[in-house]
Structure formats: structure tokens, C-alpha cells
């Protein structure tokens, strides 16, 4: 197996520190190496052509490039050797720039030594590379959208218009979400339902959309390209095909009246109802909790649509991708007892004000004090109720409530110019196109602004008194108002728990769904084929919710449009003869990619190649296609073949965080000791205890395992598993008389180059203290002898 | 600009580093039952600490007026303990030899308890007035009101085991 080795100067980036001649000559001596060269810039066209020429001339079947980080140029060199007719996976890189020349600039001799070792390790691994094929699997070209708020509607319409079939599943009897219940909306103050209703009917009439309302998802199996979805449509007690949505005939005879959730409790509805006149589908619904079963509606309905004996219906379908648009729910204002919501009638929430202001709402647009029915003359808006508040566990800003209050204050002022309005705020947040202008508009209308966070509301003789410190003057005040509006924050919809569990989505500390990258991948979930849009991933205004719905649609479309998926060959596979069916791997797999059938079976489309299963299998029946056991073992052995440095550390770095951190230490030129020989793995969870023991057995003085910070693992829980394994390993080391401190596990984010360098330096110091491996054994024996 | 970083650090060590996250919303001040007597307000006090303005932070009535009711601490939206900031400042003030305006009274109060195990109002007040005659008039008015109601003990009687009380006081002083 002729191997070609290319040592890159990278101008002076590498050649300025390392002895290139020496490295080239050393590479030539390694087993199976047919040709070794040093190239000024291996990534340049000239460099690539040289490699391609050698492949032909020396009949190379694998290539090692010792240059920059594989995170940078691995794809480049894979393409280059593929052009020369090699399988692209017959490439291995040795990182001698970010993780060597850039971080050991003042120790060229030791750095060159380290580079020799890294090249030897890469050659040893290269000898074991196997050609891999990117497999393609057929995928379903249908998409499930969960949640029919404005974000879900945007996603569904874009996909449907592009020709993909969409199942839109909505929990409530109507789509529209909260936007359908708002009055005029910022920043243009146009009527909310007037701009939304046409979109809602478009969904209903679209030939590519199957709308399943009043329904929930019960289970999802499978993976990207092929999800099997199962759900249930609740009984409306109405035949949807017969109901004309006239609602007069049935509701007028219904004797039960309850507070309407669509008016947030300030208006009423009957036990048989439509949420609001623009509801989609425009079909009545019987509230089973309120209905007394008198049957008057059954008689009154001329279309014969009321079916009180109706049962829920199950449904099932397959989709290739899922868009989660489950939105938000309002903060429960009764939790802030000091504001008296629920006890003082004239303390209302911002959503209730939206309904009061709405011409179709319970007061036909009049802003009245609930206690008296009189028009409110002096209104206070209290910002940040349930947001930015550690006492209720919500430290985040809800982002839209400042703008919503500015808007509602304007609407009230325009309608009742004499009304005195004060907004009590901590910080006014109006960042967005046209938002600051919107703030200025409110100021010009004569709305008062007081920088204060109200500490409590008291009620006296029917009036409300707000107690606060005006922080601009330092005075503590008690001020009378006759209506107080609590600007309640946005929390994740209560179904986030259920949907999160069904789909295996992770949640941020603020409980909203976490996106794959907080900046670069704004609508992708950690699970492939699942996208998140709108307030499901955090509070946001309508405009951004729509943008995200469309973005998610575009991502889903891009994913499925070819009708097939190409898979990275990183996956795990099971040696069916070895498997003892212990099912340990099934529990460990964060992507739910291993099936319980016996013997175990890996769904290669779902597997992301973290390798935690391979590390945990007690009989080594699972292995990885890339980063195989044998390859990593070969690197460990090569790293410990020569020991010309003390302490010698074998370091396993996870691809996503700590390998990135080590690269960043390089790009930031943070200098640290040369002792570590780094081995790249996909996840800290990949590190099999066998690798660690082998390293120590062969004379490494210490082993470092570096993963993402806890809670930030790219594979959700790989670092937790690594930690558990390290703890067990430490016990084992203790039992055989080795210092457990010889195995160290650290966490660093890809942005923490500094921390990586510091931790490594500390480990070197600790190992110096312990002495070369085995010191403690000899000390132990000596003690026994005496 | 932080005037006295070391002072700021001293307070943060005692009161917790969350103090750094203060958003100056005034919830603490407006929750405080003695806020009307406090200048600076609790919120302003926190600001003084963050700016390292040691002199102003230690030399004011506010820190001596806190009754440790903890309302500020319960309500603070950032999870800061303003009460601990006040406690830290009192502590530092005492170390610097800054006395509360009522320190003379407090010392007499403590001495009597140490000696007799309890307080007798008349001897106590008499001694206090000797040391600060300025407040005599105000005290007399109140005394005249209280005496007929039997609220003023004229003589000191000892508790049964004054040594135990002494021990408690020593323990607290540590
Ligand atoms: C007082 C107030 C005023 C506002 N004013 C404005 C404004 O003027 N301008 C502006 O831009 N924004 C405004 N907003 C923000 C606006 O409401 C949101 O941007 C918008 O509702 C986000 O839409 P969404 O689709 O993400 O979520 P939602 O509107 O919450 O829709 C989510 C939908 O998903 C459904 N759902 C949830 N869980 C499930 C499940 N498990 N299965 C099936 N269906 C499910 C829900 O029933 C709902 O229909 C305001 C918000 C408030 C509180
Ligand atoms: S948007 Fe304004 S009111 Fe809402 S949480 Fe943020 S700062 Fe508070």
C-alpha cells in the first residue's frame, strides 16, 4: 500500500518554526511511504497537482497531508485525491500548524519532534483507511408542520407553493396562533387579522396542504427523510363536512356560557362555539368540559352537523422533514402576587388589552376598567412582567413587549387623546427596522415614560396605586392609576415538553427549543431533518417568525427536493456475529439510531457517527466506518512508539468543541507546552477505555480527554458518558496502583482556545509532579519491601 | 470608572458577584419599608458600590436603617441580595471605625444586657441622656406618655442566670 506524505510549509507559517527538511526525510523512513515531499503551499493548485501526479506515478493508494487543521482543508484534499482517481476517504491529515507550529513558536526543536510524532501517527492511521462510499437513500417528499401560528403558516404555504405536500397539524380548533387575536400590530399598526386571515384561508384551500386541526402528535419514529408520524384528532362533536360555520343556530340555543380563552377570559362564549369569525377551518366545536349534553344544538342545527357521540380519530403518515412551530404561551401573571392580578379587577394583561382594543373584541374596541365598565382615564403599562426576572425563573427578555406596549399606548392615545398614559420600564428595547422611529412616535403623542420597575400595586377605594422608585430622580413614589396593564412575557408553549421528547429535541436553559447553532444555523434543530421556526425557539415578533417559517421551508425543500439523501459515511455498524444483544448501545445512542431488533442494527441515515456506542460495547461488536477502533488504536501506538518527551500526553479531542478550541489557540498564537499528541475523534464519548489503557500501558504519562462543555455536546450527552467512563477508569487506575490523576477530562467550547491551553499546561505540571508513569508503582513496591 | 476597585471587590466577595448584574431598576428601594428615610436609596447604594465610591457608600444613614426584612432580596429580578450588600457595608464601616449615629445608644443597650441580662428603661434612658443631652426633650415627651401605662421599669432586676446571656452576647460578637 504505497502512501504519499506531503509536508506543507504554508509559507512561513509552518516552515518558520519547524525543520521541513528533517520532517520530509523522517517521513520517507516510515513504513509503506512511497514518496514524501515538502510543498510550499499544498492547498494551492500547484500543490494539489503535485499530489495528483504522484498518485499516478507512484501508484499511491493513500495520502497523508501534514499541514493545517483538517477542519479547514480536509474537503479540499479529499476532492483533490478523488480527481486523481482515489477514494476520497483515503486521506489523512496531520495538524502541524494550528496544533503545532503556531503554538510552539519559541521551541522549534521540540515542535519539530512533536510534528514527527504527528506525522508518524497519521501514517499509521492511513495504513488502515478503507475506501468508503457515500450512500444514497430515497426520502419522502412530504413535510409535517407542527403548529399553525404565523410561523407555521408561512412555512406550510412556501413549501406547498413550491410543490411539496404539507401536513399542518394544529392543536387548537383553528389555525392563526396568537397573531389572530392581536389588534393592530407594530411596527405599521395594521389590523392583525386583516393581514393574517387571507393566509389562513389560503392554507385551507391549498391543494398541497392537508390541514389537521384540533389534533396532536403522539409519536414520531424514523429519521431524516423517513419519519413515521402518528397522531390523534380530537373529537369536535361536529361533522366538519356538514358544518357551515354559521354558529348562530346552535350557539344561540346553548344554555352554557363560559369565559372565552380567545378573549383571555374577558369575553364569553357558549359551550358550542367558533373561536372567532375568521377561524380556519370555520367549523364549530363543542367544549366537552362545558357541555351539559342537553342536545339543544343538535336539534337547532339545520345542517345536522352536531354529533355528540363523535370519537377521536387516529392518523398516520410519513414525511421526510418536520418543522416545529409550536410558538409560545403567555406568562401566568398571578405568579407575580405583588401586582394583584386575579385579585384586583383593574389589573389586566397586555393580551387582555389587545382584546379590549380589538373592534371585534368583547367591548367592541372600548378600553374600559373591568371593575366599572367606565373608559379608563389613566393607564399604567408595567414592563417586564415575567421576563428578565430571576424570581420566576425567566431571566431572558421577551423581546416584543416593549414594542407591544408602545403600540398599545399609541392606539389608546389615538382613540382617547385625553387619557394619561405612563409606561414603566427598566430598559426600552426597540431594536428593529423602524422600531426606534415607532418609539419616537409614541413620545410625540405625549405618552409618559418612567424608568422604574414597579415593586407592587395596592388597591385603595377602588383605585390602583403603583409603588416604584423613579430611578432618574431617586424618589420612591406611590402613584394612582385606574387601569394597570401587565406586559407579560412569552414562555415556550406547554407542549414543548411533549414534542421535545417525541422528537428528541434539546432545550435551552430558558426552556425554548435549542437551535443547532445560535448564530450560523438559526432554524435547524440538532436532529437532522427537523427545523424550528417562530417563537418555538424563543420570543420574536411576527416579521421574524415569518422569516423563520420561510427559512425552515427553504431548508426542508433543499433537503428533500432530490428525492434522495447522500449520507456521510461516518456511521456505526454492527458485527452481527459478535453482538450479545445487551442493548447498552440502544440506550446510549443520542440520535435513537440503533434499533432494538436482535442483534442490534444501526439506522445509518440517523447515525451521526459520535461513536459512543462503539466505546460502550462490552464485546467490541460495534465499530465506526470513519475513526475506527483499529485506526485510533494505531494512532495511540504510534504516539507512544518513541518517548522523547516527558511528560508524554496522549490527548483525545472532540471534533466540534475542543479540537476547535485547540485550533483556535493556534490561530490566536497562544503558546503552550509541546507534550500532547492529539488524536481527533468525533466526540469525547468515542474514547474507549481500551484506548486510554493502551496509551498508559505503552508508556504515556497521562491521557487527556477533551469534550464540549457539559450541556453543549454536539451529540447531546456524549460528554456525560465520557465523564462516567473516565470516573470508572480512574477507579481502575487506583486499584492497579496508578495515580488516577493520570487521566484527565476537560471541557472547552470551540471559542475557548485560552482555556484549552491553560488546562493542558496545568496537566503537564500535574504530571511532572507525579513523575514518569510507573513512579507510583515502584514507590509502592519499595514501601512493601520495607 | 471604578474609584476604588479593592473596596468594590471586598463588597462583592461578601455580597456575591451577582451584584455586578444590577440593572438599577429600583425594585429594592421601592420594596423597602424604610425607603422614605434612606438617602441614598438602596439602589443608589448598589451603584456607589459598583463605582467603588467607598466614602459615600460607607458614610450614610441608609446602611444603618436596614431592618433586614429581606423584601428587596425576595423581589430582586436579578437574584441579587441587596440586604447582603448593606450587611457588607456595615461590616466594612465598623472595621473602619465608622459608627452608626445610634451607636452610643446601642452600646449602652448591650452593656446593660451584658451586666444584668435585661433592660430597665429608666436607668438606661438616664445614662443615654447624660451622654447625648440633645435628645432629652424628645425622650421626656415619650416617657411621660409611657410611664402611666407601666411601660417604664424604674429599677434593674437581674435575670436568673446572667452568665448565660453574657455567653450568648460573646458568641454573637465573634
Ligand atoms: C401582547 C402582545 C402583543 C403583540 N403584538 C405584536 C405586534 O404588534 N407585532 C408583532 O410583530 N408581534 C407581536 N406580538 C408577537 C406575536 O404574537 C408573535 O410574534 C407570534 O404570535 C409568533 O407566532 P408563532 O407562530 O411563532 O407562535 P404562535 O402564535 O404561538 O402559534 C403557535 C401555534 O402552534 C400551535 N401549537 C402549539 N403547540 C402545538 C402542538 N404540540 N401541536 C400542534 N399545534 C401546536 C398553537 O396552538 C398555535 O396555534 C405580540 C405578542 C404579545 C404578547
Ligand atoms: S421587551 Fe421590554 S418589556 Fe419585554 S422583557 Fe424585554 S425589556 Fe422587558
Question: Can you describe this structure?
Answer:
The complex is a heterodimer of chains A (786) and B (174). Chain A has 6 domains: 1-132, Rossmann fold (3-Layer(aba) Sandwich), CATH 3.40.50; 136-234 and 312-327 and 493-567, FAD/NAD(P)-binding domain (3-Layer(bba) Sandwich), CATH 3.50.50.60; 237-311, Alpha-Beta Plaits; 330-491, FAD/NAD(P)-binding domain (3-Layer(bba) Sandwich), CATH 3.50.50.60; 569-622, Alpha-Beta Plaits; 626-786, Rossmann fold (3-Layer(aba) Sandwich). In chain A, the strands form 13 sheets. Chain A has a 5-stranded parallel beta sheet. Chain A is built from 23 helices and 38 strands. Chain A is an alpha/beta fold. Chain A is elongated and about 95 Å long. In chain A, a hairpin with a 5-residue loop joins strand 32 (594-595) and strand 33 (601-602). Chain B is an all-alpha fold and 174 residues long. Chain B folds into 2 domains: 5-95, Alpha-helical ferredoxin (Fumarate Reductase Iron-sulfur Protein, Chain B, domain 2); 103-172, no CATH class. Chain B has 11 helices and no strands. The mean pLDDT of chain B is 85. The A-B interface holds A 338, 384, 388-391, 395, 426-427, 452-456, 467-471, 474, 476-477 and B 23-27, 29-32, 35-36, 39-41, 43-44, 74-79. The complex binds flavin-adenine dinucleotide and iron/sulfur cluster (SF4). Residues 383-384, 387-388, 397-399, 401-402, 427, 429, 487, 489 of chain A line the site of iron/sulfur cluster.
CATH superfamily of the largest domain in chain A: FAD/NAD(P)-binding domain
Instruction: Say what oligomer this is.
Output: heterodimer
CATH topology of the largest domain in chain B: Fumarate Reductase Iron-sulfur Protein, Chain B, domain 2
What string gives the helices and strands of chain B in order? HHHHHHHHHHH
Q: What do we call the CATH topology of the largest domain in chain A?
A: FAD/NAD(P)-binding domain
Number of DSSP helices of chain B?
Answer: 11
- Gap between N and C termini of chain A, in Å? 55 Å
Largest sheet of chain B: none
Q: Radius of gyration of chain A from the CA trace?
A: 32 Å
Tell me the count of domains of chain B: 2
| Ligand names | flavin-adenine dinucleotide, iron/sulfur cluster
Low-confidence stretches of chain A: none
Helix content of chain A: 25-40%
Our measurement of the CA-to-CA distance between the termini of chain B, rounded to an integer number of angstroms, reads 36 Å
The secondary-structure class of chain A comes to: alpha/beta
- Count of alpha and pi helical runs of chain A: 23
| Principal-axis shape of chain B | elongated
Main sheet summary of chain A:
5 strands, parallel
Amino acid at each position: 500500500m504505497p502512501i504519499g506524505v506531503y509536508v506543507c510549509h504554508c509559507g512561513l507559517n509552518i516552515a518558520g518554526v519547524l525543520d521541513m527538511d528533517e520532517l520530509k526525510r523522517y517521513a520517507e523512513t516510515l513504513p509503506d511511504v512511497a514518496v514524501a515531499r515538502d510543498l510550499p503551499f499544498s492547498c494551492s493548485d500547484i500543490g494539489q497537482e503535485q499530489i495528483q501526479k504522484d498518485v499516478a506515478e507512484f501508484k499511491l493508494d493513500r495520502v497523508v497531508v501534514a499541514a493545517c487543521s483538517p477542519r479547514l482543508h480536509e474537503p479540499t484534499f479529499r476532492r483533490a485525491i478523488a480527481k486523481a482517481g482515489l477514494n476520497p476517504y483515503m486521506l489523512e491529515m496531520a495538524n502541524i500548524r494550528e496544533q503545532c507550529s503556531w503554538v510552539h513558536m519559541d521551541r522549534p526543536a521540540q515542535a519539530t519532534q512533536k510534528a514527527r510524532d504527528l506525522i508518524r501517527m497519521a501514517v499509521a492511521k492511513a495504513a488502515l483507511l478503507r475506501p468508503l462510499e457515500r450512500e444514497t437513500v430515497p426520502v419522502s417528499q412530504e413535510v409535517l408542520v407542527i403548529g399553525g401560528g404565523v410561523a407555521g403558516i408561512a412555512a406550510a404555504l412556501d413549501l406547498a407553493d413550491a410543490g411539496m405536500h404539507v401536513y399542518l397539524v394544529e392543536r387548537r380548533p383553528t389555525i392563526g396562533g396568537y397573531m389572530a387575536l392581536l389588534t393592530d400590530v407594530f411596527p405599521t399598526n395594521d389590523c392583525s387579522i386583516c393581514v393574517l386571515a387571507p393566509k389562513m384561508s389560503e392554507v385551507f384551500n391549498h391543494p398541497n396542504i392537508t390541514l389537521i386541526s384540533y389534533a396532536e402528535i403522539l409519536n414520531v419514529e424514523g429519521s431524516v427523510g423517513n419519519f413515521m408520524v402518528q397522531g390523534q384528532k380530537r373529537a369536535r362533536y361536529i361533522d366538519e363536512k356538514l358544518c357551515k360555520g354559521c354558529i348562530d343556530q346552535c350557539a344561540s340555543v346553548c344554555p352554557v356560557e363560559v369565559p372565552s380563552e380567545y378573549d383571555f377570559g374577558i369575553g364569553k362564549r357558549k359551550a358550542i362555539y367558533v373561536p372567532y369569525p375568521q377561524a380556519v377551518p370555520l367549523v364549530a366545536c363543542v367544549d366537552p368540559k362545558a357541555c351539559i349534553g342537553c342536545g339543544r344544538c343538535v336539534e337547532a342545527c339545520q345542517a345536522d352537523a352536531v354529533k355528540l357521540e363523535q370519537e377521536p380519530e387516529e392518523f398516520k403518515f410519513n414525511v421526510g422533514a418536520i418543522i416545529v412551530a409550536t410558538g409560545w404561551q403567555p406568562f401566568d401573571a398571578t405568579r407575580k402576587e405583588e401586582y394583584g392580578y386575579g385579585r384586583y379587577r383593574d389589573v389586566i394583561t397586555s393580551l387582555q388589552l389587545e382584546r379590549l382594543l380589538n373592534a371585534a373584541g368583547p367591548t367592541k374596541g372600548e378600553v374600559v376598567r373591568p371593575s366599572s365598565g367606565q373608559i379608563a382615564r389613566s393607564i399604567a403599562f408595567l414592563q417586564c412582567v415575567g421576563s428578565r426576572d430571576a424570581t420566576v425563573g425567566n431571566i431572558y427578555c421577551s423581546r416584543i413587549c416593549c414594542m407591544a406596549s408602545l403600540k398599545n399606548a399609541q392606539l389608546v392615545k389615538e382613540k382617547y387623546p385625553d387619557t394619561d398614559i405612563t409606561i414603566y420600564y427598566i430598559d426600552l428595547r426597540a431594536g428593529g427596522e423602524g422600531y426606534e422611529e415607532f418609539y419616537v412616535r409614541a413620545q410625540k403623542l405625549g405618552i409618559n415614560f418612567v424608568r422604574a420597575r414597579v415593586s407592587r400595586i395596592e388597591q385603595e377605594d377602588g383605585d390602583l396605586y403603583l409603588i416604584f422608585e423613579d430611578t432618574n430622580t431617586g424618589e420612591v413614589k406611590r402613584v394612582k392609576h385606574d387601569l394597570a396593564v401587565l406586559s407579560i412575557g412569552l414562555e415556550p408553549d406547554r407542549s414543548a415538553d411533549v414534542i421535545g421528547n417525541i422528537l428528541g429535541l434539546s432545550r435551552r436553559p430558558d426552556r425554548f427549543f435549542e437551535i443547532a447553532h445560535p448564530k450560523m444555523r438559526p432554524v435547524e434543530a440538532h436532529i437532522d431533518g427537523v427545523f424550528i421556526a417562530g417563537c418555538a425557539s424563543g420570543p420574536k415578533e411576527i416579521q421574524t417568525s415569518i422569516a423563520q417559517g420561510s427559512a425552515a421551508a427553504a431548508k426542508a425543500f433543499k433537503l428533500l427536493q432530490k428525492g434522495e439523501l447522500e449520507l456521510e459515511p461516518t456511521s456505526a455498524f454492527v458485527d452481527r456475529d459478535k453482538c450479545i444483544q445487551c442493548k447498552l448501545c440502544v440506550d446510549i445512542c443520542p440520535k435513537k439510531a440503533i434499533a432494538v431488533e436482535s442483534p442490534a442494527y444501526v439506522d445509518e441515515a440517523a447515525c451521526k457517527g459520535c461513536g459512543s456506542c462503539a466505546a460502550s460495547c462490552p464485546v467490541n461488536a460495534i465499530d465506526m466506518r470513519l475513526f475506527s477502533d483499529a485506526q485510533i488504536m494505531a494512532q495511540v501506538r504510534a504516539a507512544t512508539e518513541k518517548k522523547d518527551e516527558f511528560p508524554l500526553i496522549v490527548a483525545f479531542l472532540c471534533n466540534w468543541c475542543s479540537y476547535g478550541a485547540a485550533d483556535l489557540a493556534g490561530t490566536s498564537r497562544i503558546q503552550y507546552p509541546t507534550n500532547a499528541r492529539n488524536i481527533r475523534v468525533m466526540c469525547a464519548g468515542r474514547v474507549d477505555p481500551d484506548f486510554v489503557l493502551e496509551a498508559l500501558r505503552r508508556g504515556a504519562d497521562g491521557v487527556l480527554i477533551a469534550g464540549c462543555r457539559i450541556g453543549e455536546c454536539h451529540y447531546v450527552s456524549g460528554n456525560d458518558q465520557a465523564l462516567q467512563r473516565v470516573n470508572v477508569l480512574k477507579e481502575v487506575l487506583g486499584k492497579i496502583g496508578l495515580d488516577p490523576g493520570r487521566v484527565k477530562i476537560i471541557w472547552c467550547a470551540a471559542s475557548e482556545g485560552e482555556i484549552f491551553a491553560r488546562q493542558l499546561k496545568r496537566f503537564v505540571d500535574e504530571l511532572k509532579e507525579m513523575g514518569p508513569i510507573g513512579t507510583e508503582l515502584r514507590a509502592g513496591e519499595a514501601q512493601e519491601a520495607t | 470608572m471604578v474609584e476604588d476597585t479593592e473596596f468594590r471587590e471586598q463588597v462583592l466577595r461578601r455580597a456575591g458577584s451577582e451584584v455586578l448584574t444590577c440593572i438599577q431598576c429600583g425594585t429594592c428601594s421601592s420594596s423597602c419599608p424604610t425607603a422614605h428615610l434612606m438617602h441614598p436609596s438602596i439602589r443608589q447604594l448598589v451603584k456607589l458600590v459598583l463605582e467603588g465610591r467607598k466614602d459615600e457608600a460607607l458614610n450614610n444613614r441608609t446602611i444603618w436603617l436596614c431592618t433586614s426584612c429581606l423584601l428587596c432580596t425576595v423581589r430582586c429580578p436579578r437574584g441579587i441580595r441587596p440586604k447582603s450588600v448593606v450587611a457588607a457595608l456595615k461590616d466594612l464601616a465598623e472595621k473602619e471605625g465608622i459608627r452608626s449615629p445610634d451607636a452610643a445608644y446601642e452600646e449602652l443597650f448591650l452593656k446593660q444586657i451584658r451586666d444584668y441580662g435585661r433592660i430597665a428603661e429608666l436607668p438606661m434612658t438616664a445614662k443615654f441622656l447624660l451622654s447625648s443631652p440633645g435628645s432629652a426633650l424628645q425622650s421626656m415627651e415619650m416617657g411621660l406618655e409611657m410611664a402611666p401605662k407601666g411601660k417604664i421599669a424604674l429599677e434593674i432586676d437581674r435575670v436568673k442566670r446572667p452568665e448565660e446571656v453574657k455567653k450568648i452576647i460573646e458568641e454573637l460578637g465573634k
